[in-house]
Specification:
Layout: E1 3-12, H1 16-34, E2 36-42, H2 47-53, H3 59-67, E3 70-75, H4 91-101, E4 106-112, H5 125-128, E5 132-138, E6 148-153, E7 164-169, H6 175-190, E8 195-200, H7 206-222, E9 227-232, H8 233-242, E10 249-252, H9 254-268, E11 275-279, E12 284-288, H10 305-317, H11 322-337, H12 358-368
Parallel strand pairs: 1-2, 1-3, 3-12, 5-10, 8-9, 8-10
Antiparallel strand pairs: 4-5, 4-11, 6-7, 11-12
Helix pairs in contact: 1-10, 1-12, 6-7, 8-9, 10-11, 11-12
Bound molecules: 3-isopropylmalic acid and magnesium ion.
The site of magnesium ion has 2 residues, from α9.
Family: Belongs to the isocitrate and isopropylmalate dehydrogenases family. LeuB type 1 subfamily.
Binding site for NAD(+): 291-303
Cofactor: Mn(2+); Mg(2+)
């Protein structure tokens, strides 16, 4: 009897439903080849959930996710739900809520260059050649989850003491939160090139000074074999584009990681190619690093490869199906090597008949499997 894995599908908004269909197609092909079965339960998250239920993360969705062996998410959000009104629900609350509720404190964002796409970067080829880093972003703490408030301040302050609106967000960490993300980073480094860059703003922030101390203690006590360096976040933003090849594992606070991972994605020139895994102690979640691209939704032209590579990460990290995961990567590489491109990764010299849509791209990957 083939083993059955239960997967919660969260198509979300924008291009989400289109790309997740390709992820499922690839999973089904893997199932046939490796005599494994995948069973899917679809649930609502983000804008579509707000429309249907009034909240971005319905209880039902959380129950389905918790009961599954893994969650495959596409993307959430869109202009329809954009608001600065704190009283209105936002699609992103669904994403942040499910990360927190599932305890997904580790966000792995691999940044690699596919040889066939080396020209897609806006950086010089000699700078990006060989880039292979893993951003380990802390995902359930820091500035994203601290106390926050917006209120009307009757008194104002001091000489410019006009009354007016006031708002704050707080960045807070507890020791165990830094310890566990540090361990994840060191473990990842041991499977790679044995180097961790810990990114902080220790010249200004108290949380960063604590972060630095804890990361060094864990490193010295438990991972003396792994090289550890500290880098201030502003400097990291610079070094990432001047010497990206030097980075192996980069570990950092939630908000810093959000910003730096978009920057790192651009090194490859193709955000449409980058997958991510969010891991905790229970059910893990896999999603592309890109957003819901509302401008191209429904047109059948979105790049499904980041979603398909998220499936690769799911097979590797949640199901221990490393061989099948390698197979997906090989198939994607082969499709790119043959010159097939979606619009976002099209190069100046890509022939028109090699430009394909979302569904064809999924079919090509399946054909190579
Ligand atoms: C990401 C996204 C999310 C984040 C948004 C959509 C809330 O930018 O996964 O990087 O900020 O974490
Ligand atoms: Mg982001």
């Amino acid at each position: 009897m083939a083993k059955t894995y239960n997967i919660c599908l969260l198509p979300g908004d924008g291009i989400g439903p289109e790309i997740i269909a390709e992820g499922v197609k690839v999973l089904d092909a893997v199932g046939v080849k490796y005599d494994t079965a995948f069973a899917y339960t679809e649930a609502l998250l983000g804008g579509c959930a707000i429309d249907a239920t009034g909240t971005a993360l319905p209880d039902e969705t959380l129950h389905v996710a918790e009961a599954s062996d893994a969650v495959l998410l596409a993307a959430v959000g869109g202009p329809k739900w954009d608001t600065t009104d704190p009283a209105k629900p936002r699609p992103e609350q669904g994403l942040l809520g499910i990360r927190k509720a599932l305890g997904l404190y580790t966000n792995l964002r691999p940044v690699q260059i596919f040889a066939a796409l080396a020209d897609a970067s806006t950086l010089k080829p000699e700078i990006v050649d060989g880039v292979d880093m893993m951003i380990v972003r802390e995902l359930t703490g820091g500035l994203y989850f601290g106390r926050r408030e917006r209120f009307y301040d009757e008194e104002g302050c001091g000489t410019h003491g006009a009354a007016g609106q006031r708002a704050y967000d707080t960045l807070e960490y507890r020791e165990y939160e830094v310890e566990r993300i540090a361990r994840q980073a060191f473990e990842a480094a041991r499977k790679r090139r044995n180097k961790v860059t810990s990114v902080d703003k220790a010249n200004v922030l108290e949380t960063s000074r604590m972060w630095r101390e804890i990361v060094h203690r864990i490193g010295a006590e438990e991972y003396p074999d792994v090289e550890l360096e500290d880098l201030l976040v502003d400097n990291t933003a610079m070094q990432l584009i001047s010497r990206p090849v030097d980075f192996d594992v980069v570990v950092t606070e939630n908000m810093f990681g959000d910003i730096l991972s978009d920057e790192a994605a651009q090194i490859t020139g193709s955000l449409g190619m980058l997958a991510s895994a969010s891991l905790g102690d229970g059910t893990a979640l896999y999603e592309p690093s890109h957003g819901s691209a509302p401008d191209i939704a429904g047109k059948g032209i979105a790049n499904p490869l980041a979603q398909i590579l998220s499936v690769e990460m799911m097979l590797r990290y949640s199901f221990n199906l490393g061989e099948a995961a390698d197979d997906i990567r090989r198939a994607v590489t082969a499709v790119l090597d043959e010159g097939w491109r979606t619009g976002d990764i099209k190069q100046a010299d890509t022939p028109a008949d090699k430009v394909v849509g979302t569904v064809q791209m999924g079919d090509l990957v399946v054909a190579h499997l």
